[in-house]
Amino acid sequence: xxxxxxxxxxxxxxxxxxxxxxxxxxxxxxxxxxxxxxxxxxxxxxxxxxxxxxxxxxxxxxxxxxxxxxxxxxxxxxxxxxxxxxxxxxxxxxxxxxxxxxxxxxxxxxxxxxxxxxxxxxxxxxxxxxxxxxxxxxxxxxxxxxxxxxxxxxxxxxxxxxxxxxxxxxxxxxxxxxxxxxxxxxxxxxxxxxxxxxxxxxxxxxxxxxxxxxxxxxxxxxxxxxxxxxxxxxxxxxxxxxxxxxxxxxxxxxxxxxxxxxxxxxxxxxxxxxxxxxxxxxxxxxxxxxxxxxxxxxxxxxxxxxxxxxxxxxxxxxxxxxxxxxxxxxxxxxxxxxxxxxxxxxxxxxxxxxxxxxxxxxxxxxxx
Amino acid sequence: xxxxxxxxxxxxxxxxxxxxxxxxxxxxxxxxxxxxxxxxxxxxxxxxxxxxxxxxxxxxxxxxxxxxxxxxxxxxxxxxxxxxxxxxxxxxxxxxxxxxxxxxxxxxxxxxxxxxxxxxxxxxxxxxxxxxxxxxxxxxxxxxxxxxxxxxxxxxxxxxxxxxxxxxxxxxxxxxxxxxxxxxxxxxxxxxxxxxxxxxxxxxxxxxxxxxxxxxxxxxxxxxxxxxxxxxxxxxxxxxxxxxxxxxxxxxxxxxxxxxxxxxxxxxxxxxxxxxxxxxxxxxxxxxxxxxxxxxxxxxxxxxxxxxxxxxxxxxxxxxxxxxxxxxxxxxxxxxxxxxxxxxxxxxxxxxxxxxxxxxxxxxxxxxxxxxxxxxxxxxxxxxxxxxxxxxxxxxxxxxxxxxxxxxxxxxxxxxxxxxxxxxxxxxxxxxxxxxxxxxxxxxxxxxxxxxxxxxxxxxxxxxxxxxxxxxxxxxxxxxxxxxxxxxxxxxxxxxxxxxxxxxxxxxxxxxxxxxxxxxxxxxxxxxxxxxxxxxxxxxxxx
Lengths: 368, 543
Hints:
The complex is a heterodimer.
Chain A: H1 15-31, H2 35-52, H3 61-81, E1 90-97, E2 108-113, H4 114-140, H5 143-146, H6 155-181, H7 192-219, H8 230-255, H9 261-279, H10 300-322, H11 341-351, H12 353-356
Antiparallel strand pairs in A: 1-2
Helix pairs in contact in A: 1-4, 1-10, 2-4, 2-11, 3-4, 6-7, 8-9, 10-11
Chain B: E1 2-10, E2 19-26, E3 31-35, H1 42-50, H2 52-55, E4 60-67, E5 70-71, E6 84-87, H3 100-111, H4 115-128, H5 144-157, E7 162-165, H6 174-191, E8 194-198, H7 202-205, E9 211-216, E10 219-223, H8 225-228, H9 237-245, H10 254-260, H11 262-270, E11 290-299, E12 302-312, E13 317-322, H12 328-335, E14 343-348, H13 358-361, E15 365-368, H14 381-392, H15 398-406, H16 408-411, H17 425-437, E16 443-447, H18 455-470, E17 474-478, H19 482-488, E18 491-496, E19 499-505, H20 506-511, H21 519-524, H22 532-542
Parallel strand pairs in B: 3-8, 3-9, 6-7, 7-8, 13-17, 13-18, 15-16, 16-17
Antiparallel strand pairs in B: 1-2, 1-4, 4-5, 9-10, 11-12, 11-14, 18-19
């Protein structure tokens, strides 16, 4: 039934669908430390992003590098600061620096064990996979499109965030050009001093560009004083912000071990209720006096994305419920992680969205 | 439609007035072209009309600016969005969304237009600027001319009756510029839109203008284009030719000029041919100090430069022409060893700059990028010179002396403390050239040096480049400016789609092209004349 949309007319999917899918994948990544599952998950996410990303120029490469760096930092940090906290299989010894009493468990140097390295690797991979999921969200649906669904009262904040977010790549381009241009002045060294020399022209170019963007938005009618009364807008803004803080606390609580689950869930629910209450106030959906050109449709393809994401999350939670240690391979004693089939299949289902969703209009030739 | 009444503008108390006592009236459905030397207040004038000055930029405005019955004192730019469409110098910097259609709709969304109305307006705007085929394209993938048209469509969709365009064609190739100007012209004719636009290259815009607004030192003179051309400090080649031939009032279009040029053509038929740099008959110049063979560059999955072969003899100025995105900049930066190449060799005086450390490479090749600010980073001209001495490892003071040689005014005591950002475009370019030339390169590359330069600055630049060439440098200039090429280049290389498509003496390439023909050549066809200077010296020779 879902497969019926394969030959659908090329169109962009509802941005909320992609972002919810990506967040679901990030939740899965957060729940598991099994490297095999994480590799499958990253492969699935990258596959979908490559096949269904809305912009051919926006690639996953940057996020994959970032993920690799995170894993690297995590492992190196373990080598430097770990001091053989767990495990007995000592691989090599780092020169140890004695630290004063008050630093507590933090150690510098000392023995490096295979078990702690495996533990660091698994943990790092989990975080890295979440970064890849976030990157996939921005590749699949540009944050600017998501902005349309930001509640009215947060619109200004949202705009600032999104302009900043889409501005970062441009700043990267500028930085790359300026870095290359140093050669024209006879400089090809590296190091902090060289970076400082490039920073000034890059930042001033960025500033000039932001001013041009701001002037353009201003002269095109952005932020015209709306019809809403100041008082109600303030109350609504406060409600949304409090709600968002509640949601953030709740999510954090649910994800980290050691917090009471009911308290966290309560935070999440109350926060969500507060935030949505303002969204569903009449006229609250969009800033007063603002309309939307072509609202995104929500049809079977969007549902298929949500269902696939839901199946993945459910699979992982079921596996964990049946056997709490299933997705946390043992490091002491260290064993080769096995592959819990139900979880792997669940993650595989998430990759199916690459076939259940229409092709973005820009990249017809990449039809799978 | 646009009324300025005794308008004076000052940005800072300590600085002189940018505009003083300006009176200007632009009627409904008029196309007014604002011209004048760089840095004389053209952009400020446009900003005043769009309401950005002073609401956005700060500063103090005296007098009254009324557009369509609304006073900008009491209306912020946002309140004028349904009346005035403002497009800045770099339209891409003003894009808020990702795709063409969304961008066109953005203003309507801000104004809270009802959906059915919005759809109709978007379609109309797309049609008016011939963008229907591009509607779902990404803005980042568009060419310069397309971007400019999208920006105009976006402000037009909101129902603007007044368009304020700041140098809409300065970054465009001749084809793209023509598209944009034709579209603007159609809007004026069919919809009665009022247009106020700045333009440095009057040869392109003057023929469409109902009114010419000359800005000089903050003062404004407005009126009939051909009458004002008699007193203007900025003159397109066709007007220069008219002055030389004694036609008054001067014709402003090539068509008018051709009709009056019978006599001149007849006189010139007897004169010795064409440009002063017509190559002497004989073998082509010997392969010189710069040899480029099979240069290939790939960017992502796209090959942006295919197998480029080029010889640049010493003492020759080569112009690199071609559409936006044809690979001109890539060829330049690959020659300087700035971008990684996939294949090919560059040989400058027997060495490849890409193989050398930067300090040695800049003694072979110097490149001035299209934004000279990329090269500059000090907070004053003097510091920049000291920094350049240090970077290139020359004796202290060498850069300052170089600057004094090519731009005595800039090296003078009262200018050297200026911040590079406060210099005019031409001065900044000169400073960047001084920095580059201090290293003593054999090959000088310039990417789009004429953007934002007025006629006087361009002819100074052209004289400068000729003198560099005369001293034995090989010079390559990538540019869209046909008139500048006619003035400066010995040879012309045309590129398209990352390949070199034509190469030859400037006169041959320019005269055989339909797009890249200088005005003088159009007027005097079939005779082979490229510049007013060449005609002048021929006439002097005769007289």
